[in-house]
Design goal:
Blueprint lengths: L12 H14 L2 H11 L8 H22 L2 E3 L5 E4 L9 H31 L8 H19 L1 H7 L4 H10 L13 E3 L6 H35 L5 H38 L6 H10 L1 H12 L1 H11 L8 H4 L1 H6 L2
Antiparallel strand pairs: 1-2, 2-3
Helix pairs in contact: 2-3, 3-4, 3-11, 4-5, 4-6, 4-8, 8-9, 9-10, 9-11, 11-12
InterPro entries: 7TM_GPCR_serpentine_rcpt_Srh (IPR019422)
Keywords: Membrane, Receptor, Transmembrane, Transmembrane helix
Protein name: Serpentine Receptor, class H
Length: 334
């Protein structure tokens, strides 16, 4: 007699259909965001335009992989995941999971680079030229930021065990496991019941929390530096740059809320072996909507994109005066 060891709803059909429909509807904004960054960015943005586009590119990749091509479904607090995306019958699910890890990390790293670039742009606002030493130091900081964002990829890939032996161990250890355990698209992401399970979870938590703290600190530094440089500016200019700072903090909170929180909760439940009914959907919804939240934040943050969007939809809000639209120029001028 076949006895189920599952504690999950493994085939939430309505949830999956609604999730895919929402992803399709939200997908309309992605090509529009690419168009705005490439064609509506002010010339005074300088290289920050390409930093923003790099971030836009990687969050688009994250959206495609998370919502359609790979689409990871977590069986919390099991160490198994299921690849539900369109490519699961084309490529090896372990390879797809590896690609998902890389894309997710690259997306987060692009956010770190974006916030770092804003700090440098503010620091260099009134410099006519940059010395070779300063350029070299900034490049080294960018290298450190990239390493900081990507350092968990090798550990996560190295920890993926042999699937046959690991699935056999999972089915014999007496803990709940999904009924689809032996399906080809189910992947054991690390060795259960060993020190590596907790080690990888702890490293992953440290990575997400440290990235979130770094982005929030970068936003606060930008706030502080810009405030110092605006002391002798007009009241209107100071008000515009206060709005810039508020939007920067908002972007930092979006990253914390949609990325750091769900993945930290996921790995905490793995470490402590806690099953919380419904938490799988919370993790899935927030992690998959992280790129969409980031794209929306681009329109909230950059006035030229926001103004063009309002023009397309035929809305002319009163607070969008010509003075306010120059806020981005003030911050990003060379």
């Amino acid at each position: 007699m076949n006895i189920s060891h599952s504690i999950w709803n493994e085939n939430p059909v309505i949830y999956v259909v609604v999730k895919r429909i929402w992803a399709l509807l939200a997908g309309i904004i992605y090509p529009f965001a690419h168009f705005c960054v490439l064609t509506k960015s002010p010339k005074k943005c300088g290289y920050l335009k390409w930093v923003v586009y790099l971030h836009c590119f990687w969050i688009t990749c994250e959206w495609l992989s998370g919502s359609f091509l790979i689409d990871i479904f977590d069986f919390q607090p099991s160490v198994t995941i299921r690849v539900d995306g369109l490519l699961n019958n084309v490529l090896d699910p372990v390879l797809l999971y590896t690609i998902y890890i890389c894309v997710d990390s690259l997306s987060s790293t692009s956010a770190l680079i974006l916030f770092t670039s804003r700090i440098f742009m503010i620091m260099n606002m009134y410099r006519q030229y940059l010395s070779h030493l300063r350029i070299f130091c900034e490049l080294m900081i960018y290298v450190l930021v990239v390493i900081f964002g990507l350092w968990t990829i090798p550990t996560a890939i190295w920890s993926i065990p042999d699937q046959t032996s690991e699935k056999l161990k999972i089915s014999q250890d007496g803990q709940p496991y999904p009924d689809c355990l032996w399906d080809d698209n189910v992947v054991a992401v690390f060795d259960s019941g060993s020190q590596s399970e907790h080690l990888v979870s702890i490293l992953t938590i440290l990575n997400w929390v440290s990235c979130g703290i770094a982005i929030f600190v970068a936003a606060k530094i930008a706030f502080f530096l810009l405030a110092k440089r605006m002391v002798n500016e007009s009241k209107a200019t100071r008000r515009m740059n206060k709005k810039f700072n508020q939007r920067t903090i908002l972007q930092a909170f979006i990253f914390l809320f949609f990325s750091c929180v769900p993945f930290t909760v996921l790995h905490l439940t793995i470490i402590f072996g806690l099953y919380i009914p419904g938490i799988t959907y919370f993790i899935d919804i927030f992690s998959e909507n992280h790129p969409t939240a980031c794209v929306v934040a681009l329109f909230l943050f950059y006035d030229p994109y926001q103004i063009y969007l309002f023009k397309i939809i035929g809305w002319n809000p009163k607070h969008m005066s010509k003075t306010s639209t120059s806020a981005t120029f003030v911050v990003l001028r060379n």
